[in-house]
TrEMBL record:
GO terms for biological process: deoxyribonucleotide catabolic process. This is Nucleotidase. The active site is at residues 8, 10. Belongs to the 5'(3')-deoxyribonucleotidase family. It holds the Pfam family NT5C. The lineage of its organism: Bacteria, Candidatus Gottesmaniibacteriota. InterPro entries: 5'(3')-deoxyribonucleotidase (IPR010708), 5_3-deoxyribonucleotidase-like (IPR052419), HAD-like_sf (IPR036412), HAD_sf (IPR023214). One of its GO terms (molecular function) is 5'-nucleotidase activity.
Length: 207
């Protein structure tokens, strides 16, 4: 049976939060640090709690970045992820990118994946459709179930907690805390690569 790995994009392959944060900080003259980000949708909450009345401006700024080709395609890849994914693909593993980015930025997302060499043979890409799904956790679980994904790689705690399959959770300031048994906290892509065979054996997936 072909092994299938579901892989999130933002903060798993792409250094997204540092990129957004640096733009946001310089635009609004604030100094939010990565370590302060205690929840995945931190900036949404920060903007909502903002007392300076710049809520609309801040929301528009973030939305603008989301659709900004230059910004999006300039986000840096996370070390080792490209080489490891290429290696897996060459071993016959199916790579399936599953992201809560909106379907409206599919093209930009593909451009980024291709630019950095993530678009391996038979790669698949699913993005979030507001008309079809009510939240990102249900969306990712549904795609994983429908495609018989064996293992997921994620940084959002809620999404990892919503999965029944093994999940490698890349350690980030916003996902600290107690985990379910199927979730393995990891600190690098090298660690994921090293632990994958053992986890695959545990779920009976044979390459
Ligand atoms: Mg993510």
């Amino acid at each position: 049976m072909k092994v299938k790995i579901g892989i999130d994009i933002d903060n798993v392959l792409a250094e997204s939060y540092p990129a957004y944060l640096s733009k946001f900080n310089s635009q609004f003259g604030v100094e939010i640090q990565m370590e302060e980000i205690r929840e995945f949708y931190f900036l949404d909450k920060y903007i909502k709690d903002n007392k300076k009345g710049k809520v609309r401006e801040m929301v528009n700024f973030i939305d603008g970045l989301m659709l900004d080709v230059e910004f999006q395609t300039g986000i840096l890849p996370i070390p080792d992820s490209i080489e490891i994914i290429k290696k897996w693909s060459n071993q016959g593993i199916q790579i399936h990118y599953i992201t809560a980015r909106p379907v409206s930025i599919r093209k930009m997302t593909e451009v980024w994946l291709k630019k950095h060499g993530y678009w391996v043979n038979e790669a698949k890409l699913d993005l979030y459709n507001f008309n079809k799904h009510s939240n990102d956790t249900d969306f990712k679980k549904e795609v994983a179930d429908k495609n018989n994904i064996n293992i997921f790689i994620e940084d959002a705690l809620e999404i990892a907690m919503g999965m029944d399959i093994p999940v490698f959770l890349l350690d980030r300031p916003w996902n600290r805390g107690k985990l379910k048994k199927n979730i393995i906290r990891v600190y690098s892509w090298k660690e994921i690569e090293e632990k994958l065979p053992r986890v695959l054996n545990g779920v009976g997936g044979k390459n």
